C-alpha cells in the first residue's frame, strides 16, 4: 500500500509574521522553527511576489537559502524569478522553477522525480549553500569571483608544492629487463621508438594542451574541419561530424578507414602529443627502488621521474642512481605521509601523472596503453588493479573488497594515471579530516583519491588490461599483506562517507582493452591501437 504524500500549508502564524512586501507571503515563526520543519521536508514551496516587476525578494531569498541549508529541494513558483547568480550557477541541478499557471501540475512533477534525482538535487543544493551563501566570507568571495569572471580577469594561480631536491649521483647504465619486452598473451601493438620531445607544460586548471584540436582530412570534396574544445567542454573521441556536403557521416580521425598508423602516431588520441610524469613513493627500500627505476629505461613519452623520498633518513651517499634517459628528481618530504604521493610538486610539468609504487611491476606496453586510455578520458582515474566497495548488511556498514569481481568502483593509485588538477584538490581543497585519517592509519590514500574524483565527476574510474595486481615478484612484503590493512580500509570508507555525506563511489563493469586484444597478427599488419 502506497503512503500518500504529506503537504503542510499554514495560512496563519502563531506569532507576529515578519514584515514583507504587499504582494508577498510573509515569513512565519523563528528561523530555528522553520529549519526544524524543513529538515523533515523533501521539498520547500517558494511562491514569488505577485508583482511581476519583482524578480525576487528578501523573503523568497530567505526561504531559498533555508531550504538549501537543510537539504530540502526548493520548488519556486514564478516564471519571472531570477535566482542568485543565475547566469553563473546551474540552478536546475538543485531547484525546480515552475510558472504559476502550472501550479496544478506541481504534484505530478514532484512525483516523477526518482530517488536518485532527489539525492543529487539535495546534495547539489547543500553544496551551493555551503560554497556560495553560508558565511559572509563565502558571499564576499562569490561576488568577487563573479565580477572577475564577467570582466575576464584570470584567477590567481594556485600554489604548487616546492620540491626540495635531494642531491644524488647518477651514471649507472640501466639495463633492459627482458620482462619489459615480453608481452605474453597481451599484444597491445608496436612500441614507439621516437626520440624525446618537449612536453606541453601544465599551465591551467584542468585543461588540455594549448592547441586542442584534431584535424580530419578526407579524400571526398569539402574542407577539412578543426574541432577546438574548451577546458570545460572537451571533445569526446567518439564524437563525429558531417564533413561537408555529400561527404557522408565520418568519424573524427578515421580518415578513409584503417589508418591505424596515423592514429597511433597521435598516441591513440585526438589531441597533440604529450608526455607524462612518473611520481614514485618510496620508503627505505633502495634496492627495490633502483630496480623499479631501471625498468623505466626507454619508456616512451616519459617526461621525468619524481621520487618522493618519504623517509627522514637520506639515501646512502654511495648509492648510484640509474641513467634512464630522463631526469630523476628525488624530493625530500617534511614527514612520512602517504598524502605526499598526491602533492602538486612544482617539478611536475605535465598534465598526466602516473602514480606508481616502488614495487610495482608493469610492462612498457601496459603503461603506454594506460596513458592512451587516460588521454581519451582525462577527467578519470585510469589504472590497472580494480577494487570495489560493498554494503555489509549484518553490520550496516561499508566494506572494502579486493576479491576478483565482475565490477569495480576503485582503482589502486599504486599504478594509475590521473590529472595534476586532482593533486591540487586532494592537497588543498579536500577536507583535512580525510588527510588526517590517512596519516593516522598510514593507509587509504588511494581510497581517498577515488572518493574525490568520483565526487567531482560522478563517474567511476577506468580499469585497463586484465591485471588484478602489479606487485613485482620477489619484492619485500608490503603493508597490504597485513590483516589489519583491510580492517583499516573498512574504517576509512565508512569515515569518508560521513565526511562527504553520501557514498560517491560508483560501480562499473567496464574495462578497456586494445581492439587487437589477444588477436595474433603479423608484425607488419599490427598498426591499429584503438579502444573498445
TrEMBL record:
Q: Which residues form the Glycosyl transferase domain?
A: 276-517
Name the enzyme group at the top EC level: transferase
What GO molecular function terms would the record report? glucuronyl-galactosyl-proteoglycan 4-alpha-N-acetylglucosaminyltransferase activity; metal ion binding; protein-hormone receptor activity
Localization: Endoplasmic reticulum membrane; Golgi apparatus
Q: Which GO terms describe its cellular component?
A: endoplasmic reticulum membrane; Golgi apparatus
Topology class, membrane: Single-pass type II membrane protein
Q: What is its EC number?
A: 2.4.1.223
Pfam families according to UniProt: Exostosin_GT47 (PF03016), Glyco_transf_64 (PF09258)
Q: Which cofactor does it need?
A: Mn(2+)
Where the protein is mainly located, per its record?
Answer: endoplasmic reticulum
Give residue ranges for domain Exostosin GT47.
31-113
The biological processes this protein is annotated with in GO are: heparan sulfate proteoglycan biosynthetic process; negative regulation of inflammatory response to wounding; negative regulation of keratinocyte differentiation; positive regulation of keratinocyte proliferation; positive regulation of phosphatidylinositol 3-kinase/protein kinase B signal transduction
- Pathway in which this enzyme or protein is active: Glycan metabolism; heparan sulfate biosynthesis
Catalysed reactions, as listed in the record:
3-O-(beta-D-GlcA-(1->3)-beta-D-Gal-(1->3)-beta-D-Gal-(1->4)-beta-D-Xyl)-L-seryl-[protein] + UDP-N-acetyl-alpha-D-glucosamine = 3-O-(alpha-D-GlcNAc-(1->4)-beta-D-GlcA-(1->3)-beta-D-Gal-(1->3)-beta-D-Gal-(1->4)-beta-D-Xyl)-L-seryl-[protein] + UDP + H(+)
* Protein name as it appears in the record: Exostosin-like 3
User: Which lineage do the record's taxonomy fields give for this organism?
Assistant: Eukaryota, Metazoa, Chordata, Craniata, Vertebrata
Amino acid at each position: 500500500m502506497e503512503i500518500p504524500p504529506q503537504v503542510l500549508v499554514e495560512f496563519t502564524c502563531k506569532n507576529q509574521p515578519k514584515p514583507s512586501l504587499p504582494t508577498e507571503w510573509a515569513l512565519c515563526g523563528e528561523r530555528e522553527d522553520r529549519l526544524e520543519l524543513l529538515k523533515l521536508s523533501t521539498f520547500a514551496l517558494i511562491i514569488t511576489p505577485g508583482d511581476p516587476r519583482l524578480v525576487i525578494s528578501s523573503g523568497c531569498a530567505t526561504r531559498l537559502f533555508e531550504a538549501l541549508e537543510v537539504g530540502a529541494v526548493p520548488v519556486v513558483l514564478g516564471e519571472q524569478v531570477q535566482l542568485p547568480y543565475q547566469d553563473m550557477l546551474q540552478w536546475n541541478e538543485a531547484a525546480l522553477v515552475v510558472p504559476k499557471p502550472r501550479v496544478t501540475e506541481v504534484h505530478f512533477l514532484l512525483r516523477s522525480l526518482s530517488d536518485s534525482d532527489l539525492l543529487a538535487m539535495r546534495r547539489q543544493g547543500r553544496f551551493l549553500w555551503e560554497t556560495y551563501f553560508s558565511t559572509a566570507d563565502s558571499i564576499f568571495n562569490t561576488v568577487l569571483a563573479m565580477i572577475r569572471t564577467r570582466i575576464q580577469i584570470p584567477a590567481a594561480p594556485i600554489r604548487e608544492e616546492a620540491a626540495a631536491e635531494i642531491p644524488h649521483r647518477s651514471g649507472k647504465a640501466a639495463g633492459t629487463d627482458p620482462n619489459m619486452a615480453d608481452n605474453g598473451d597481451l599484444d597491445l601493438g608496436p612500441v614507439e621508438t621516437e626520440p624525446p620531445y618537449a612536453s606541453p607544460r601544465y599551465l591551467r586548471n584542468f585543461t588540455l594542451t594549448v592547441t586542442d584540436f584534431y584535424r580530419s582530412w578526407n579524400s571526398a570534396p569539402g574542407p577539412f574541419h578543426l574541432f577546438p574544445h574548451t577546458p570545460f567542454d572537451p571533445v569526446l573521441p567518439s564524437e563525429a561530424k558531417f564533413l561537408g556536403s555529400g561527404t557522408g557521416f565520418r568519424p573524427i580521425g578515421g580518415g578513409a578507414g584503417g589508418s591505424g598508423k596515423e592514429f597511433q602516431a597521435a598516441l591513440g588520441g585526438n589531441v597533440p602529443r604529450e608526455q607524462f610524469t612518473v611520481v614514485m613513493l618510496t620508503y627505505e627500500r633502495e634496492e627495490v627502488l633502483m630496480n623499479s627505476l631501471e625498468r623505466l629505461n626507454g619508456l616512451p613519452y616519459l617526461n621525468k621521474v619524481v621520487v618522493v623520498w618519504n623517509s627522514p633518513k637520506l639515501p646512502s651517499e654511495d648509492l648510484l642512481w640509474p641513467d634512464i634517459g630522463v631526469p630523476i628528481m628525488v624530493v625530500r618530504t617534511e614527514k612520512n605521509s602517504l598524502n605526499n604521493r598526491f602533492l602538486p610538486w612544482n617539478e611536475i610539468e605535465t598534465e598526466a601523472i602516473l602514480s606508481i609504487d616502488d614495487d610495482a611491476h608493469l610492462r612498457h606496453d601496459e603503461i603506454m596503453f594506460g596513458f592512451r586510455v587516460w588521454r581519451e578520458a582525462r577527467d578519470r582515474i585510469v589504472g590497472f588493479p580494480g577494487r570495489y566497495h560493498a554494503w555489509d548488511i549484518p553490520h550496516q556498514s561499508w566494506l572494502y573488497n579486493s576479491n576478483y569481481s565482475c565490477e569495480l568502483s576503485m582503482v589502486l593509485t599504486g599504478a594509475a594515471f590521473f590529472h595534476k588538477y586532482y593533486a591540487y584538490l586532494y592537497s588543498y581543497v579536500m577536507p583535512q579530516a580525510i588527510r588526517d585519517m590517512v596519516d593516522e592509519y598510514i593507509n587509504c590514500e588511494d581510497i581517498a583519491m577515488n572518493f574525490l574524483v568520483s565526487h567531482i565527476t560522478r563517474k567511476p574510474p577506468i580499469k585497463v588490461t586484465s591485471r588484478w595486481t602489479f606487485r613485482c615478484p620477489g619484492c619485500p612484503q608490503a603493508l597490504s599483506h597485513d590483516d589489519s590493512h583491510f580492517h583499516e580500509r573498512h574504517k576509512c570508507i565508512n569515515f569518508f562517507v560521513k565526511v562527504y555525506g553520501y557514498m560517491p563511489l560508483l560501480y562499473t563493469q567496464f574495462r578497456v582493452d586494445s581492439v587487437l586484444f589477444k588477436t595474433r597478427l603479423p608484425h607488419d599488419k599490427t598498426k591499429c591501437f584503438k579502444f573498445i
